[in-house]
Every structure is written in structure tokens, then in C-alpha cells.
Amino acid sequence: MDQFQNNDLDAFWMPFTANRDFKENPRMLVSADGLYYRESEGRRILDAAAGLWCVNAGHNHPKIKKAITDQLDELDYAPNFQFGHPLAFKLANKLKQFFPGDLNHAFFTSSGSESVDTALKIALAYQRAKGQGSRTRLIGRERGYHGTGFGGISVGGIVKNRMYFGSLLAGVDHLRHTYQPEHGRFIKGQPSHGAELADDLLRLIALHDASTIAAVIVEPMAGSTGVLIPPLGYLERLREICDQHGILLIFDEVISAYGRLGYTSAAERLNVIPDLMATAKGLTNGVVPMGAVMARQHIYDTMMEQADAPIELFHGYTYSGHPLACAAALATIAAYEEEKMFDHAARQEEVFARHVHGLQDARHVADIRSWGLVAGIELHPREGAVGARGMALMKACYAHGVMVRFSGDIIALSPPLMIGEEEIISMVATIRKSLDEVE
Ligand SMILES: Cc1ncc(COP(=O)(O)O)c(C=O)c1O
After folding, report:
1. 406 alpha carbon to ligand 1 midpoint, in Å?
2. Could you tell me the pLDDT band of residue 21, with boundaries at 50, 70 and 90?
3. Does 5 have pLDDT greater than 90?
4. I need a labelling partner for 312 at 20 to 30 A (CA). Which of 5, 28, 30, 97 fits?
5. pLDDT of residue 411
6. With a 6 A CB cut-off, is 39 part of the ligand 1 pocket?
7. Ligand 1 atom 3 nearest Cα
């Protein structure tokens, strides 16, 4: 830790971190390559979290690095308000081909939170443009995570992310979450029970009337709350109800897009096409902050045709379509395609699930859920100290050379897509050893 002795750790107020605890005993990552970080003491750490669910193509990818450095020589920054630069258009066209159905217009942001708030705002503006201005309600879901903007925490359903921040957006309601351990635990892939939970939307329609509801937003696979996989038929049913009642369906695919499920998106995997799709993270492999909201043709057409001002949408960010981010995104998608990373992820799904589910009999384990290259390992909480065991396990894994995420007492695994069986075996062995150690 010598290099930090004169470097006050206090000055950086760290996000979503137990600051005091971290600063007593920092976990400092100083470089990365492929599947591994290197930490300040020189140890190699297997990245079982793809950074923060974003480094899907692995660290230090030469193509992405080159694209960014080359771009720096061309154009460092250009505004996309009333001016443009070619790469943003090129990327939008690439994404149009990349995603399924007619999700063919891209609105660029700088993060997942911005993508979510952008999608919510587009939904409201669209309903108004259509002459449905009474549709102002937004429906989220319990246990949903949609980033940290006021829109995102309002539709989100994680209590600690909401309770400290006042009354949030008005006119928001929530569907029930989809976790039903009473119908089965240790399920690989989508649970067969629970499609009818989508009918909870009918309850909210009965309560508020569809004419007041603009949009429903869900993560197809709820990641940050601890990996909740959608029951078979659930998203299909949600799509159906939204269609019947003129409600827009927004998928928050900030985690699930860009190969995490072995496909471009959950929408592609399930062939359920939302009206708006929020993405970020894997879009640029996490290398440059960027998000993209994909909108279907009818959304874009309505906004263009019904606009009451030359500027059709009063929304945007200084960094929407930043040239370096566009260069990174184009190179990232090229890497995904050329190296067939999604196919690899799809092939590894069974191998990954088999090894991770091998932890069923490990100490403290209450449930394991997996889909694509994502898994949640839910631990029995310590009595009177919810979350303490999850944090202790994260620390133990790190001490043994594996970086995992935790949310309360649930460990989330989401390694870079090119992970091989050997690394999966070593990751699982480290988790088992760590489970044996922690109280
Ligand atoms: C589903 C989902 N939406 C939104 C976000 C927010 O993204 P960001 O942290 O880039 O704002 C996240 C981040 O984990 C996420 O998982």
C-alpha cells in the first residue's frame, strides 16, 4: 500500500461503497488484461463480474484500444446538438442492424441511468404527441434496478435506493417481483412457474385505468437485485397486456444486452420486442461511458410527425454520441461479431450453469439461479445482520483471487463472455473455499 501512503483515500467519496470499511482495507485494482485484474500488491484477480457487468469482451481488448486512440487523432469532441459527426450516425446504423425487430433508432446517452431516464421521458413525450396526454403514469417493478436518476429510482424497487431520497416521481406504481422460491429453487434458466405474475399489470390497470398509464419498465433479467430470471411466458404476457391497453413496454437491458445471455439482447433471445430498450455497459465494453436507447419505428415516426416545434424532443446530453464513445462502441461490436463472442457465451451457458449449480451443497447456500452467463448465489443471511455474509464472502473471494459482486446476501457472477471451462472451475472452487471460511 506504499503508493497510497501520501494519497488521502478520504477525498474520493466512493459510489455504492462502504467507504469507511473500504478505506481501512482497500481493494485497489491497478491494471487489467483479458479475464484478469492485477491489484496493487501484484496479485492476479479473476474478474467474475466483468467489472460491473460491462467488460463483456474482456479487458484491454486491442481493437477497442486502437479505435479510441485512432479516434483521438481525428476528432476529440463534437456536439450533437444541431451539429453532427459521422461516427454517431454510423453507430446508430450498426445498432439498427444489430438489435431485433424494428428497434431501429438510437438515442445516445452516457450511462445506464441516463438511458433509463431517457426512455421514460421518450415514453411520456410520445404519449402526449399521440394525443394521449392523460397517460402520465409509469409502472416499474418491485426489486427492479434502473440506475440512480430520479426517474430510475422512482420506477426502481430496491428500498435502500429509494428510502433516503424523498417522495420521488409522482404517479409511479410497481408490479410484483417475479421471485417465487416456493415454486422451486436451484433452477437453471427460466422458471416454468410464474407467467401469470404479468397479470399483476391488470390489477394496476383496474386501479388506475389504462388511460393514465404511459409505460411499463422492467429488466428482462433483474440483475442488481440478485439475479431474478423471468418465468417462462412472463415477458410475452406483459407484451400482450401492454399491446391490449396502449401501454408502452420498456426493457431495461443495461445488463442483459450485448451478449450476456448469448444474444444481442433478452428481446432477441425471447423474441419479445419492447417499444423502447435502454442499454449501456457492454455497448462500449465499459471502456468509455456510453448508453443507447433503441426506439421502434412507430415511436420515432410519431415523434417526428406530431412534433409541435422544430426540435422534436427537448432532451439530450453534452456527451450524447461522444466521438470516443462511438469509436469504442463500433470496435466493441466488431469484436463481439468477429470473435463470435455471443456464440461462445451461448455454448458456455450449460457448462457455466453445471459448475455453478455444483455449489448447491456448499455451506450457507440457499438458492442458485442462472441464465446465459449470469448466476446469482443466494446465501442464508446471518441472524440479525442481513448482508453481512454477502460482504464477507466478496472479501474472502477477493483474498483468494476472484472478484465477485454482491447485493445483500446474494453473490452475482457475470464473467467476461470468453471465459473458458478451466476458469469457471477455478472460480467455483474459490467460491466454495470462501464459503467454507466465512461465518
Ligand atoms: C438494469 C440496469 N439499469 C440501469 C443501470 C444503471 O447504469 P449506470 O450505472 O451506467 O448508470 C444498471 C447498472 O447496473 C442496471 O443494471
Report:
1. 15
2. very high
3. no
4. 97
5. 98
6. no
7. 146
Tens digit of each residue's pLDDT (9 = 90 or more) over 221-279: 999 999 999 999 999 999 999 999 999 999 999 999 999 999 999 999 999 999 999 99
Helix, strand, or coil (residue 367): strand
In ligand 1, the atom with minimum distance to the C-alpha of 112 is 7
Q: Which residue has the cell 423471468?
A: 230
Write down the CATH number for the domain with range 2-57+340-437.
3.90.1150.10
Assign 387 a pLDDT band (cuts: 50, 70, 90).
very high
Q: How far apart are CA 279 and CA 108, in angstroms?
A: 9
For the Cβ of 408 lying below 6 angstroms from any atom of ligand 1, the answer is: no
Residues whose CB falls within 8 Å of the CB of residue 358, separated by 6 or more in sequence, listed in order: 428
Contacts 24+ apart (CB under 8 A), 432-437: 432/359, 432/362, 433/396, 433/400, 434/393, 434/396, 434/397, 434/399, 434/400, 434/402, 435/359, 435/362, 435/363, 435/364, 435/365, 435/379, 435/393, 436/362, 436/363, 437/396
Q: Give me the DSSP letters along 24-49.
A: HS---EEEEEBTEEEETTS-EEEETT
| Ligand 1 site-directed mutation target among 16, 52, 56, 116, most atoms within 8 Å of CB | 116
State in Å: Cα 112 to ligand 1 middle: 4
Q: Tell me what pLDDT residue 4 has.
A: 58
6: CA distance to ligand 1 center in Å? 33
423 CA from centroid of ligand 1 (Å): 26
Q: How far apart are CA 281 and CA 151, in angstroms?
A: 19
Tell how far the Cα of 212 is from the centroid of ligand 1, in angstroms.
27
Atom of ligand 1 nearest to the CA of 114: 11
Domain boundaries, the chain: 2-57+340-437, 64-338
Our answer on whether the CB atom of 145 is closer than 6 Å to any ligand 1 atom is yes
What is the distance in angstroms between the CA of the first residue and the CA of the last residue of the chain? 27
Phi, psi of 414 (to 5 degrees): -155, 70
pTM for the full predicted model: 0.98
Cell 466488431 belongs to 334
Ligand 1 touching residue 274 (CB < 6 A): no
- Which atom of ligand 1 is closest in space to residue 144's alpha carbon? 1
Residue 13 half-sphere exposure, CB side, CA atoms within 13 Å?
0
DSSP-based three-state secondary structure for 376: strand
Q: What is the distance in A from the centroid of ligand 1 to the CA of 254?
A: 6
